[in-house]
Fold these 4 entries.
Entry 1:
Amino acid sequence: MAIILHLSFGGAIGLMFLMLGCALPVYNAYWPLFLLFFYILAPIPYCISRRVVDDTDSASNACKELAIFLTTGIVVSAFGLPVIFARAHVMAWGACALVLAGNIVIFATILGFFLVFGSNDDFSWQQW
């Protein structure tokens, strides 16, 4: 039960950093909210590959590796977009730093969720 509490606290802290990067009167630019799409899209390829692939084979397969590749592309894009916004003077560098801190916390929370609930036991997220 404490694990779920820690994961939800991590998600709230990450979203707080994202909102601070957008809504502080010094920055006042809401373009970083496009990162919410990356937060939603990041776990989808891995979830689909877990449903399609049978885990009885210990060897790596192409579907799982494609899912990891797509997830990595989404995560790298989520870190690159704020830097591009800051370089194009769409948002300030301070807002970029807050958004990048939020990215670190959010993606660490997503990773923690899959590490804790990713196994195929009775306490798995796949039964939900």
Entry 2:
Amino acid sequence: MATDSCDGCGRSVSLAGGIANIWTFGEDDGSDGTAMTLEFEDGTSHLLCYPCIGALPDDPTAADVDRLEQVDEETSRLAE
């Protein structure tokens, strides 16, 4: 499983799939990751961890991603 960093808070994330998981099956099939790439209506795309995704408002923009910060390993929030 590949790793990268969250565009919002910077925490290390794992990406599902990829060549490393091509021959795995069952419970370890590479379908579990800790981040997802989202494409916003403003035309931008961002790799975000699940805590950052949960902190985003409805109809997020790139400015909202810039305001994300890590609180701890399980939560993120938008900075004021």
Entry 3:
Amino acid sequence: MKSTLIVLAAAAATFPSAFTAMAAKPKLNQYANLDDCNNDRNILFHAAPVSGRCYNLDGRTGAFFWATGGMLNPRVYSGTNCNGVEDPLSTNGRCIAKGSYQSFKMW
């Protein structure tokens, strides 16, 4: 047991961003604009996304932030209910303008 903890501690020190991403909880925050998103203020909606579930972006949303929480396939869609053109997102969450995106899903 002690050797397993030592190995995990060494791995976490070597690859801290990977362990932080795995330990973080998934997040989908919606904001009225990119400035609010970048400054994490005036949040419109917050969700803790569940794997495989589609989330429609609200009409008031101008920008959104996601964190994968270890899920590796974040996607946005041009249509509601995860229909239409699908675009992959980075597994490193960040704020982006909503643009023409209407829905979001990850797994």
Entry 4:
Amino acid sequence: MPLPERSGSDEPVFANPVFGEEPITVPRNELSAAGLDPGVAYQIVHDELMLDGNARLNLATFVTTWGEDHVQRLMAESLDKNMIDKDEYPRTAELEQRCVRMLADLWHAVEPIGCSTTGSSEACMLGGLALKRRWQHRRRAEGKPTDKPNIVMGVNVQICWDKFANYWDVEPRLVPMSGDRLHLGAAEAAALCDENTIGVVAVLGSTFDGSYEPIAEICAALDALQAEQGLDIPVHVDGASGAMIAPFCDPDLEWDFRLPRVASINTSGHKFGLVYPGVGWALWRDAAALPEDLVFRVNYLGGDMPTFALNFSRPGGQVIAQYYQFLRLGHGGFRRVQLTCREVATALSAKIAATGAFDLLTDGSELPVFAFVVKDGEPFSAFDVSAALREAGWLVPAYTFPKDREDISALRIVVRNGFSHDLAGLLMDELTRAVERLRHQSGPQRGKEAAGFSHT
């Protein structure tokens, strides 16, 4: 694999003389001959990282950027724990299983099986693999070929699903956006299914605009398809964000294992699960939904350890932090946190709409995430607005929507735990100033080629 192009200067670092008795130069792209004093090495790395954006002001990411001191302390105390060493760290392994059982209860599973992952991308890969393997087993039992599997999903899915289809030779059947429908529709999903469809991916919270896909309607459409054509097609719910929002904010919404057609669900512990980056979760309805031949057993770490994951060694601290958050907040605490995020999102989106400069695509009333576009006739683009906010330290992405709605250039704001009404007010002040200034332009100055963000 070729190395990426280098960014920045290749010149060596000339360290400040205060760092040592003699002038020091440090090469940027190869090992130094003799190493450095730890204080010098720390200061060089620390100083360069100051040029990163402020994570708390990053409204592009769904990933947790704030946590209590107790979370940070537990993770620091667990830096040396390898999650895969379950025989050596039995309590950490037990906390992982408790988290699985808690999520199963939250998602109405009766006989679940599940595991932690490094994030939702890995969990989605595992969910897709289980769908493919179940389809292969059924087809072989029927004496039918298994060489042309396909998976149906909206064009708005996260990039991990495109990777899954590419890496595991599954044809991706993407339902395009159309008109005001900016995610997967039930009828459109069913129309693309056939005997080679391993499953349908339904997203509870699109990254493009924060909207929920109609999972109950999708399942009902697949029920009708089975009644008409005999096709029994399972659903995987990509709940990377929404699976930790809907149970607390929308408890009556049926999207989870209450729907018999839902075979598996994933979520990101490090998104609205309120843990720092590095943990996701994958759950299956029951053991039958996860083929046994996908589970490996090893004994060279001590004991007989079943494992189903793409990664092997990975940190245990994030799983421990997840259990802490479940223990610390409980159902009532999570509900307060998530509802507060939604309240901030809906209040902020209403103020942005009231400026008269923008139209809302969503308002944050599902995921606490909303997207908006610049009104026709304004002399600036979404990319101008993103750049203006970035000058003040706010990281708000501007991006175009996928094929068939590439005419939409949107801005999106993700409201996470720690983004308060006060911070939202400060952002609104800066956006108001930016709009006033940008309205003096003769026309838009930046297009999508100027975007500083990659949506995927």
